[in-house]
Design brief:
Layout lengths: L10 E9 L5 E9 L4 H4 L33 H14 L1 H26 L4 H24 L8 E2 L3 H16 L2 H5 L10 H10 E13 L6 E11 L6 E11 L5 E5 L6 H8 L5 H19 L1 H11 L35 E4 L4 E4 L10 E5 L4 E8 L2 E6 L15 E6 L3 E2 L2
Antiparallel strand pairs: 1-2, 3-4, 4-5, 5-6, 6-7, 8-11, 8-14, 9-10, 11-12, 12-13
Length: 416
């Protein structure tokens, strides 16, 4: 027990400190009243010190009234009981305080969350990136060519109409209509069309197979048909390769694939092996051979067409008719006078063809040796339109002209 016997104030406070099992030290306290003369009572102003004593000059704070379960008699017991109650109730007190602090902290965090500003800038940037990625995906899906890469029967009505108009223009020898059908690069030979129209009566049983082209707006075509010649009953099964493209005005144009060096021909040819059109091509080729072998009149006429002779046809004769064009000669030297410039073959065994088509050898008129002289009529698309009418070659040696027009490759022909 620690006692302070200073009699400087109105009361003397006694403190008892008790060590406890917890982290706190309980204090039992009591006060002894000090008698002060009545005349001095008026001048005394209490003062409180840290040790619990009162000094004059200070007014002690009033303590809240509490219910006294022990009555007014036993003041020290009251304080001792109060200390004991405080000691025994310290754990619940700390628990309630901890719970109060927990809820206060949660309320404070909730208020902080409500006051925290929304990070709009990163949200906006993330949204823009997401929209850009979505737009890119849509563009890729729209621009992608989803057509199935396989040969199949054509179901495009525009292509069907284009092909039928092409064969109608050939039958009618309509060069103006043909120029609106074929690609602008394809030169229309009106003379050749007129000659062919004299031989071909119609094109029947047209079947079209298509394959997606190198671009989304392009299409490769495999076309089979039966060619009907005038005055001949047997029809000739035939095939042709074509390519469909758009012109500057978005109109469909047809490109006959007669030049094997073009990218279009190489592309279509690369799709041929193992496809359904390979089987069809084999079937048509067999049917073509059967038609020629079974009809001698057709066979003889095809031999005549191979020499580019469309002018005369007499089916009842056994000999293929020929037409010999007039020969212009110099009245003095009696030598042939060419009507145009003269060119010369630069290789051996150059094919002299009746048409600009390398798909078949059936249009080969004859083979020309190096130095063979030909009269030049025109030139287009890697071909030279010539006339075989000159009696002497480049070195002045005699040669045997056929007096027929045809075509030779410009790559192996020397022009003046």
């Amino acid at each position: 027990m620690a006692k302070n016997n200073n009699n400087d104030g109105l009361f003397h406070w006694n403190f008892d400190l008790h060590e406890t099992d917890s982290d706190f030290t309980d204090i039992d306290y009591s006060a002894d009243a000090i008698d002060v003369p009545e005349e001095e009572d008026k001048d005394i102003k209490p003062m409180i010190f840290v040790d619990g004593t009162y000094k004059s000059g200070q007014t002690p704070a009033e303590e809240p009234e509490e219910d006294d379960p022990f009555g007014p008699e036993d003041t020290s017991r009251k304080h001792q009981k109060g200390g004991f109650a405080k000691k025994s109730g310290s754990a619940p007190h700390r628990k309630k305080k901890a719970e109060a602090d927990y809820y206060d902290d949660r309320e404070q965090l909730s208020d902080e969350k409500e006051k925290r500003p929304i990070p709009w800038k990163p949200i906006i940037i993330a949204g823009i990136v997401l929209l850009a990625a979505l737009a890119g995906l849509i563009i890729i899906l729209v621009s992608r060519d989803h057509r199935k890469k396989v040969w199949a029967k054509n179901e495009d009505q525009a292509i069907d109409t284009l092909v039928k108009n092409y064969f109608k223009a050939k039958t009618d020898a309509d060069a103006d209509a043909m120029e609106k059908i074929v690609v602008p690069e394809e030169k229309v030979n009106s003379v050749q069309m007129t000659l062919e129209a004299k031989a071909y009566e119609s094109y029947n049983d047209i079947r079209i197979y298509s394959y997606p082209g190198m671009k989304k707006t392009e299409t490769g075509l495999f076309v089979s048909y039966n060619a009907k010649f005038k005055n001949i009953d047997t029809q000739l099964p035939t095939i042709g390769w074509y390519y469909v493209k758009e012109d500057a005005e978005k109109n469909l144009r047809l490109m006959p694939l007669t030049d094997t060096s073009t990218p279009e021909y190489k592309y279509v040819r690369s799709t041929y092996d193992g496809s359904v059109v390979e089987k069809l091509s084999t079937e048509v080729t067999a049917a073509n051979k059967n038609a020629v072998d079974s009809d001698p009149i057709l066979r003889k006429y095809l031999a005549q067409l191979a020499t580019n002779n469309y002018e005369t046809y007499v089916p009842e004769t056994t000999e293929a008719p020929t037409t010999v064009p007039p020969v212009v000669t110099d009245p003095v030297t009696e030598e042939y006078v060419p009507q145009g410039p003269v060119g010369y073959v630069t290789t051996n065994s150059l094919r002299f063809r009746s048409s600009m088509n390398t798909e078949s050898d059936g249009n080969i008129i004859k083979y020309l040796d190096e130095g063979y002289a030909l009269e030049i009529i025109d030139e287009a698309d890697g071909w030279v339109h010539v006339k075989d009418s000159l009696p002497k070659d480049k070195n002045g040696n005699p040669q045997t002209p056929s007096n027929l027009e045809g075509y030779v490759s410009a790559e192996f022909f020397e022009k003046p």
